[in-house]
Write a structure and sequence with these properties.
about 140 residues, disordered N terminus, elongated, mainly alpha
Length: about 140
């Protein structure tokens, strides 16, 4: 079957988007207020009326244009951007270049525990002061 034939089959595009979102036909059916058989029929249809397409797009969390323009090649190209290991691209065209961690998470964890320790020691000091105050109060009576 040629790619040209597949590219205009709206039902297949809906099916692929649903699968990529790890959604079952039953879940889509529930979101649309219909049953699984109706979703199956939609996914086997070459065309879908605009009103139904709007409902499906909303249920899938995508735009109508995303469904109409969906292509397997586009998905593959999109995910290939995640596998490029050149994080030092100075032009900023690389997706991964903006995801470098600017701090050491372990250092942050150690900072958190140190701060927590200081707060606990301060709380303990306040409680000791309170106990001493109460003892002085009792002795004065």
């Amino acid at each position: 079957m040629s790619t040209l034939t597949k590219s205009n089959h709206i039902g297949r595009k809906i099916s692929r988007i649903r699968e990529l979102k790890d959604m079952k036909q039953e879940a889509l059916a529930q979101a649309l207020g219909t049953n699984q058989q109706a979703v199956s029929a939609i996914e086997n249809s070459e065309t879908v009326d605009e009103e139904k397409l709007i409902q499906i797009a909303k249920a899938l969390g995508v735009s109508v244009e995303a469904i109409k323009n969906f292509s397997e090649e586009g998905v593959i190209n999109y995910f290939n951007t995640f596998t490029d290991n050149d994080f030092s691209n100075s032009q900023g065209t690389n997706f991964g270049s903006n995801n470098a961690c600017t701090f050491n998470p372990l250092d942050k964890l150690v900072e958190y525990f140190e701060e927590n320790k200081k707060l606990y020691e301060r709380l303990l000091e306040v409680e000791k002061e309170k106990a001493a105050f109460l003892e002085r109060l009792l002795k004065s009576k």
